[in-house]
Amino acid sequence: MAREFVGSNTKIIDRVNVMKQHDIYPFFRAIEASEGTVITYGNKDQIMIGSNNYLGLTHHPHVKEAAIQALEKYGTGCTGSRFLNGNLSIHEELEEKLAQYLGHEDALVFSTGMQTNLGALSAMCGPRDCMLFDSENHASLIDASRLALGATFKYRHNDMESLEEQLAANVNRFKNVIIVADGVFSMTGKVLKLDKVIELADKYGAIVYVDDAHGLGVMGDRGRGTMDHFGVTEKVNFNMGTFSKSFASIGGVLSGSKADIDYIRHTARSFMFSASMAPASVATVRACLEVILADETIHQNLWRNVDFMQKGFKEIGFYTYESTTPIIPVFVGDDLKAMQITKFLGEMGVFATPVVAPAVPKGEALIRTSYMASHSIEELTKVLEIFAIAKKEFDIPSIHH
Q1: Could you say which of 138, 229, 245, 299 is catalytic?
Q2: For the whole model, what pTM was predicted?
C-alpha cells in the first residue's frame, strides 16, 4: 500500500473534524439547484446572500442563450493555450469590447482571475523592482508576490500615510515601484482610496495596479470599475477584473496601455501555459456586457437593494464596517459563533457565508453577506427579519471591539 501523505499542518483537519462532529461545518455545501436569488440546499430553499453574482446575470435569458450558441458553434473547449492553438476570434473581439468599456487602450483575458494576478504581477515585478501591498490584499495577490522575483512590502490597510512611508523608503532603491491593491476589499466591502493612491503614485513616480475583482461591474458608470468611480481611469496603469462575479462566468481581464498589455501577453506564464477560456464562458461575458450597457435598471436595482440592506442592518443594530458596496459584512467576533449563526440562518432559509481566521484576524469573525440586483425587496425583508432573530438568539455585538 502506498505511503499516506499527511500535510504538515494537521491542526486544520482536526478543526474540520470537530466542526463536522458538532454539525457546524459551513464549507463545501453542495447546492442542488439555483435560480439566481434562491438556491436549494439539503432539499430546502434558501435565499442566497453569499454570492458574488452582484448583477444577478447568471440566469439572464440573453446571457444563457449566448452561451448555448457559442457551445453549438465552437464546442465545449479550446483544448490549448491562446499562444498556440486555442485563440478564437471571439477571444479577441471580447478583449476589444472590454478595453472600450473600461476606457483603456487594450485588454487581455485569462482563464481565471487568480491566473490574471499570478501571471501579470510575476511578469511585471523583476529582481530590480518592488511591490507595495495593502495589508488586506486578496490571496491571489499574495501568491503572485511569492512568484515575483522582486521584493514586496506591506502598508497598513487603506492608510495613505503608511503607503507614503513605503514609497519614500523604496522609490530610490528599486527600478520600478508598483502599488498593488484591491479596488473593493472582498471581505469588508471597503473601497480603496484610489484617488489618494494616484496622487501618491504621481508624486513618487510609481506604477498602479488595481485588483478590481469586486468593483468591476459594480462601481462607477455602468460598472466600469473603481477607477471610473474616482474618475482616474487614465492614471491607472493596470486594472484587473474577474468574470466570476458580475459577469456570471469564470475568467479574468487585465487592461492597460497597448505596449504594457502586449508585454504581459508574451511573458505571463499563467496565460501562455494555460488553456484558454472556454467558448461558452467568453460568450457569457460578452452577453453580460451587452445587457449592462442596454439596461440601466440593473444598477438602479442593485444600489436600491444595497441601500435597503445597509439601513435595515443599521436599524437592527449590527456593525457592518461602514461598507458602501454590495458586500455588507456583519461583525460577529467569535469564530465558533459565526459558524453557529451560519447554520441557524440556513435552517431559517438564508444562505450566508462565515469568514473566520485566518481569512480575517483572530476575534474578527464575520458573516459576509452580499446582494444582487435581482433580489426582491420581499426577499430582503425576510432576510432582515431572520437576522433580527439571530441577533437576539446569539447576542451578536452592535459594535466592533
Answers
A1: 245
A2: 0.96
